[in-house]
Amino acid sequence: MASLDPRKAGPLAMAPVAALLVVGFLVPLVLVAWLSLMPERTFGLDAGLTLANYATAFEDGYIVPLGWSLFFAAATTAICLLVAWPMAKTLARRGSAFALVVTILVALPIFVSESVRLFGTALFLMPRGGILAGSLNALFGFQVGSILYTKTATLLGLVYVYLPFALFPMILGLSQVPRDQVEAARDLGASRWQVLREVELPNAMPGLLIGGLLVFVLAFGANTEANILGGQSVAVITKSIDQRFSYAQDWPLGSALTILVCAITAAVVFPVLERIDLDRLLRR
Amino acid sequence: MSDRTGPGFAPARDATAQEQLSVEQPALALRGVTRAFGASRAVDAVDLEIREGEFFTIVGPSGSGKSTLLRMLAGLDRPTAGDILLRGRRVNDVPANARPTAMVFQSLALFDHMSVGDNIAFALKMRGVARTERLERARGLLDVVHLPASYLDKPVTQCSGGERQRVALARALASDPDILFFDEPLSAIDNRLRKLLQVEIKELHRRTGKTFVYITHALEEAMVMSDRVALMRAGKIVQVAPPLEIYDRPTSRFVAEFMGEVNVWCAVREAGGVALPELGLAFPGETLPQAEGLLVARPEKLAMLGEGGGAQAIVAGTIVDEFVLGSRKQIHLRPDGDASRPIVFGEIPATPDAPAPGARVRLGLAFADCRFVTE
Question: Chain B 146-185, CB below 8 Å of chain A: which residues?
Answer without folding.
Answer: 171-172, 174-175
